[in-house]
Amino acid sequence: MALLAEGLSTKETAEKLFISPKTAENHRSNIMRKLDLHSTVELIRYAAKIGVIDVDLWMG
Predict the structure, then answer these.
(1) What gap in Å lies between CA 48 and CA 17, rounded to an integer?
(2) Any alpha helices (H) in 1-60, and if so which ranges?
(3) Which of 23, 39, 43, 58 has its CA at 20 to 30 Å from residue 33's CA atom?
């Protein structure tokens, strides 16, 4: 979730986690579905709200 919320692409996320891009996409979809989030912006907001990402570092 943190990698996605930080703006990494599906391919970049997959490479960092040593998984296929399709698996990374499935994980992203499952996370967003389970949290009832409908956009990447909502995912970023949620991640910031629960402290997964530091918005000040992310914006800087």
Answers:
(1) 21
(2) 2-5, 10-17, 21-34, 40-49, 55-59
(3) 58
Backbone angles phi, psi at 8, to 5 degrees: -70, 145
One-letter identity of residue 40: T
Place of tokens 């907001």: 45
Chain segment 6-59, per-residue pLDDT in tens: 778 999 999 999 999 999 999 989 999 999 999 988 988 898 899 888 777 656
Q: Amino acid identity of 38?
A: H
Say how many residues make up the chain: 60
